[in-house]
């Protein structure tokens, strides 16, 4: 992102751990304060772990996938609907939920 910012000086970078509800809310508060005219949200983060049901950390990995792939886009959409009109929410996915790693 920093390389892209060097080429595009108006690009704004803000780090956010999408797994963290607190970070998502902090991001939204930052947007409300710094960019209240924002009217487009693109949800484009996603992860998928290689895991077997008998892995010791299976549930940890599963919770992380659910938090980032499902909970975060829903939560951010809910928050960002509070901003100005018009609103566009674009969800970009890989389709791995339909054809997961086996």
TrEMBL record:
It comes from the Eukaryota. GO terms for molecular function: oxidoreductase activity. Keywords: Oxidoreductase. SUPFAM superfamilies: NAD(P)-binding Rossmann-fold domains. Pfam families: adh_short. Belongs to the short-chain dehydrogenases/reductases (SDR) family. This is Short-chain dehydrogenase. It comes from Spumella elongata.
């Amino acid at each position: 992102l920093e390389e892209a910012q060097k080429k595009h000086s108006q690009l704004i970078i803000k780090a956010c751990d999408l797994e963290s509800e607190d970070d998502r809310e902090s991001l939204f508060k930052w947007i409300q304060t710094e960019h209240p005219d924002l009217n487009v949200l693109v949800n484009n983060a996603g992860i998928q772990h290689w895991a077997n049901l008998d892995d010791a950390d299976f549930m940890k990995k599963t919770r992380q996938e659910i938090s980032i792939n499902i909970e975060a886009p829903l939560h951010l959409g809910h928050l960002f609907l509070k901003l100005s009109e018009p609103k566009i929410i674009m969800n970009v996915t890989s389709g791995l939920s339909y054809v997961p790693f086996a």
